[in-house]
Amino acid sequence: MDLDVAQVRAFVRTAEELHFGRAAGTLAISQQALSKRIARLESLLGTELFHRGGNGVRLTDAGRRFLPPARRTVAAADAAVAAAVGTDRPLRVDVWGHLYAPMRTLAQVAGRAGELTLGHGRDLPSVTTALLHGDIDAAFGRVHPPLPAGLAHRLVRLEPVDAVLSAGHPLAAATALRPDQLHDSVLWAPGALDRLDFLHQFANRFGIRKTATSVNLGLTHFLAEIAEEPRRFSLVPADVSLPQVPGLRSVPLIAPTPLYAWSLLWRTGNGHPGLNGLATACVEEAGRSRWLEYDPTRDWLPEPLTSGPGPRSE
To answer: pTM of whole model > 0.90?
Structure first.
């Protein structure tokens, strides 16, 4: 019995996602094409691999037995391609938005994503240029439109942000704040606001009329500038480990909670097999750590919740 690697890959992705639409997206194919691949594989094996019903998609007993060797089959196929075409080198990954510490998230998946070579951080325009020129294979940070043609991304994590403000700020004693309560405060930005899409959209959405910009000299310097002025505030992802800055308060935002969206970004057509390993590691950790929880009645995102298709190597 000869297995078709594309069909086995379709099964593995669907088993990981337990959702035909999302699995199709990670492979950059239509849901109909994915369903056909799995149906042909089930016909070849003579058994169903998934339960399909009103309660969603679940693996059958045969599917659970088939999954571990199927993963090994896909990995072996990727390794064979890498050996033949000379892509047996570390995956080159860079980040942007370093003030918000993107390496925190990559560090949680790097050990399961194969060998990586990490860059030192750029801005989004520099990252997109490097990807299009082939200088790097993937990047990680907050994606916002417009992206140049030839690039694709996958949403990896939605992280709540907190307000950071001076201890002398009139609202500093609050245990939590609504974003609109900050409308009379000064939004302190680490650069020109029109280049900082998340802060720019936050200001527009919640009526923040007063803004001021600084020079980005790192998180400690940025927070110290906020602490020294009672009317200033800014936003920092909730899981960022803040340096010890005297006179600074961090307060959760609620009703709604703003979410900062982290994505994996790559050039379409990049055949490096490490891309699939990194994307799979991100998917698995997102499920394990509930990184993609989103409730539109409770949370706020600057743009619709979307995730581009994943890399493909078939």
So the answer is: no
